[in-house]
């Protein structure tokens, strides 16, 4: 684990809780937006420069045979903001996520986190540096309890080193990690599930556990892949509140999402992909009036608002085969469940 400081380590939770429930009414409270106004002077064009980027990607590409799944020339992510990554099915969003987080290898490209090169850095090392992600399909270890799932997320555990595992030196750290895990379970209103097996939880509850477990690393950049997918409306509101809470703490959030109400509600900035390329960037208002975005989703339209049109039509046409979004990296074994690897937070 690196010695880089984490934002607001040990901060007292600003989230309330309700006994045994989802706590949606508490989680959706209004949170301070520390980056309000940060995008006022940013051009709403692909590859636009940001005032204080935490993540930069240059010339990132990924090819599957003769098909280009990702071809991103330049992207900057503003520190402390919530950035949405949207696009039609098969646009390359998840593949791009995999490339940024080290779960797939770029054919070409360079990435930087806080000004330091991270191209080729494995996921567990990125987690140590403060960059974590969640997945479309949750990675909870179903035969372990919720509290044990949480404790796995902590980095720098002494007991993970071979020789020290046989010595009692790890016991104190184990107790400290459990205290942090319990505090996060309370924050996400999951204390009542503490000793239950993760496999008994609903899909929405597993999403909450995965987000809480990501915070065990005390990250500065959290990447969420379709966090609202398959979640009932009550828990969706809870998740929205928690995502806004991450921004209020000074953390940066990037998320992939198809629900345009969610995108419009919580995003400071929106990046739009189609056919592997970034075709637009801007505030939700900018994107709502962008004709290129409307065309990418719905074909040629005029004088229409993107968010209204996409909600009314329900059309999300495929630009490239959708299964490429979740294609296994070359040389991987699709039958191996490696969800307990460090970095699959």
How would you summarize this macromolecular structure in one to three sentences?
By secondary structure, this protein is an alpha/beta fold. Helix content is 29%, strand content 18%. The protein has two domains: 31-140 and 220-326, P-loop containing nucleotide triphosphate hydrolases (Rossmann fold); 143-200, no CATH class.
Explain what this protein looks like in three dimensions:
With 345 residues, the protein is α/β, with parallel strands linked by helices. It folds into 2 domains: 31-140 and 220-326, 3-Layer(aba) Sandwich (Rossmann fold); 143-200, no CATH class. Helix content is 29%, strand content 18%. It has helices at residues 24-27, 93-100, 123-128, 146-152, 171-187, 203-215, 233-248, 260-266, 284-288, 291-298, 306-313, and strands at residues 53-64, 67-78, 82-86, 108-113, 116-117, 131-133, 221-225, 252-256, 269-274, 277-282. The strands form 2 sheets. The chain has a 6-stranded mixed β-sheet, sandwiched between helices. The chain has a 4-stranded antiparallel β-sheet with strand order 2-1-4-5, covered by helices on one side. Helix 4 runs parallel beside helix 6 (203-215). 43% of the residues are buried. Mean pLDDT is 80; it is low at 1-28 and 315-345.
Q: Quickly give the CATH architecture of the largest domain.
A: 3-Layer(aba) Sandwich
Note poorly predicted spans.
1-28, 315-345
Number of helices: 11
Question: What's the domain count?
Answer: 2
Total number of β-strand segments?
10
Question: Mind telling me the CATH class of the largest domain?
Answer: Alpha Beta
Radius of gyration: 20 Å
Overall pLDDT score? 80
Spatial shape: globular
The CATH topology of the largest domain corresponds to Rossmann fold
Strand proportion, as a percent range, falls in 15-25%
CATH superfamily assignment of the largest domain?
P-loop containing nucleotide triphosphate hydrolases
């Amino acid at each position: 684990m690196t010695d880089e400081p984490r934002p607001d380590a040990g901060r007292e939770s600003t989230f309330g809780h309700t006994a045994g429930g989802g706590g949606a009414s508490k989680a959706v409270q209004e949170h301070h937006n520390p980056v309000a106004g940060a995008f006022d002077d940013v051009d709403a064009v692909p590859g636009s420069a940001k005032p204080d980027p935490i993540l930069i990607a240059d010339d990132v590409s990924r090819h599957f045979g003769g098909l280009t799944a990702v071809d991103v020339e330049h992207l900057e992510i503003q520190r402390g903001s919530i950035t949405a990554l949207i696009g039609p099915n098969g646009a390359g969003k998840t593949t791009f996520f995999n490339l940024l987080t080290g779960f797939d290898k770029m054919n070409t490209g360079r990435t930087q986190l806080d000004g330091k090169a991270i191209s080729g850095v494995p996921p567990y090392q990125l987690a140590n540096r403060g960059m974590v992600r969640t997945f479309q399909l949750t990675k909870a270890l179903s035969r372990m309890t919720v509290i044990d799932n949480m404790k796995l997320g902590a980095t720098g555990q002494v007991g993970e080193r071979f020789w020290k595992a046989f010595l009692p030196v790890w016991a104190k750290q184990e107790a400290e990690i459990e205290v942090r895990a319990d505090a996060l379970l309370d924050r996400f209103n999951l204390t009542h599930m503490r000793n239950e097996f993760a496999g008994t939880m609903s899909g929405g509850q597993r999403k909450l556990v995965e987000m809480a477990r990501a915070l065990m690393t005390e990250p500065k950049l959290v990447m969420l892949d379709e966090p609202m997918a398959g979640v009932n409306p009550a828990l969706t509101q809870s998740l929205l509140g928690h995502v806004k809470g991450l921004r209020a703490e000074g953390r940066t959030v990037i998320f992939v999402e198809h629900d345009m109400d969610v995108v419009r509600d919580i995003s400071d900035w929106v990046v739009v992909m189609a056919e592997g390329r970034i075709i637009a960037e801007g505030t939700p208002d900018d994107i709502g009036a962008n004709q290129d975005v409307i065309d990418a989703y719905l074909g040629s339209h005029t004088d229409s608002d993107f968010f209204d049109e996409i909600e009314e039509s329900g059309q999300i046409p495929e630009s490239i085969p959708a299964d490429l979004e979740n294609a296994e990296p070359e040389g991987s074994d699709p039958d191996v469940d490696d969800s307990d690897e460090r970095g699959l937070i």
